[in-house]
């Protein structure tokens, strides 16, 4: 079992060594100190801290992936439904899709290209949503 090592409160840089790098380092150290204190990590062992941080950063990574990949597609699907409900036909929808198609291709094209390179077969079904299958 590891010995308890309390987190140390960061000291602000002195006036003579005050450069932009020391100020940034101080602010990062202060932010990490606040993160440790507010999440209760200051009483955890190093192994527990590692596990906790892995879970937190994995969830943050999944959240940012969902926002960057799934949100544009969900927004376009919602716009499809809204335009169809308001107009009753799909011609206005087709015009909007042509205008927005480049945005979706830019946001999701890189992810699909990386998946293709990793051995994942990507196909579009009839609803224009991606279907993934491993080779």
Note the main attributes of this structure:
single chain; mainly alpha
SSE class: mainly alpha
Task: Please compute the radius of gyration using only Cα atoms.
Answer: 24 Å
State the helix count: 3
Q: Low-confidence parts lasting 5 or more residues at pLDDT below 50?
A: 130-135
Q: How many strand units?
A: 2
Describe the secondary structure blueprint for this structure.
Blueprint: H1 20-39, H2 46-87, H3 91-117, E1 120-124, E2 130-134
Antiparallel strand pairs: 1-2
Helix pairs in contact: 2-3
Characterise the protein shown here:
It is built from three helices and two strands, in the order H-H-H-E-E. Strands 1-2 form a two-stranded antiparallel ribbon. A hairpin with a 5-residue loop joins strand 1 and strand 2. Helix 2 runs antiparallel to helix 3.
Summarize the structure.
With about 140 residues, the protein is mainly α. The protein contains 3 helices and 2 strands, in the order αααββ.
């Amino acid at each position: 079992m590891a010995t308890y090592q309390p987190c140390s409160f960061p000291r602000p840089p002195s006036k003579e060594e005050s450069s932009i790098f020391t100020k940034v380092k101080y602010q990062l150290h202060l932010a990490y100190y606040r993160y440790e204190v507010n999440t209760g990590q200051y009483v955890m062992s190093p192994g527990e801290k590692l596990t906790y941080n892995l879970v937190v950063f994995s969830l943050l990574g999944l959240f940012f992936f969902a926002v960057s990949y799934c949100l544009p597609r969900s927004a376009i699907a919602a716009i499809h439904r809204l335009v169809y409900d308001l107009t009753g036909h799909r011609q206005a929808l087709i015009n909007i899709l042509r205008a927005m198609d480049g945005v979706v291709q830019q946001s999701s094209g890189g992810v699909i290209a990386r998946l293709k390179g990793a051995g994942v077969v990507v196909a579009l079904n009839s609803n224009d949503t991606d279907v993934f299958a491993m080779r």
